[in-house]
Amino acid sequence: MDCLFCKIIEREIPAEIVFEDDEVLAFNDINPQAPTHIVIVPKQHIATLNDIEERDLALIGRLQYTAAALAAEKGFAEEGYRVVMNCNEQGGQTVYHIHMHLMGGRRFIWPAG
Ligand code: AMP
Ligand code: ZN
Predict the structure, then answer these.
(1) What residues form the catalytic site here (predicted)?
(2) What strand order describes the sheet that includes 17-20?
(3) How many angstroms does the Cα of residue 29 sit away from the middle of ligand 1?
(4) Catalytic-labelled residue, pool 45, 97, 99, 101
């Protein structure tokens, strides 16, 4: 499959992997927008948030659970952090394999840009 994140999952493209289990992979973003910026992806290819089905609900929860665990591990869980999932063109999605951005280590403004 011609998908960047599937290639990272398959180890065809290198990445700085920070967490892996049977269902999820997390790696440092190549263009970080915060002192810590981690991309968390399901190993299953799902193109956009619009393609989630009911059978995927536990997997989506696992992305969030992984984000919280990594925030704790990195030491910014208590001070706070930002989690983002972009969907389609207006949402700012550039890689069409769903992923959660975990960003921490600085203050974030709201509303997001
Ligand atoms: P999005 O714009 O929400 O689709 O996010 C895609 C993210 O993937 C961006 O933050 C990119 O910087 C990041 N990215 C693109 N290519 C790579 C790569 N080879 N390794 C790590 N992160 C990447
Ligand atoms: Zn993929």
Answers:
(1) 99 (tele-amp-histidine intermediate)
(2) 17-20, 24-28, 36-42, 100-104, 81-84
(3) 6
(4) 99
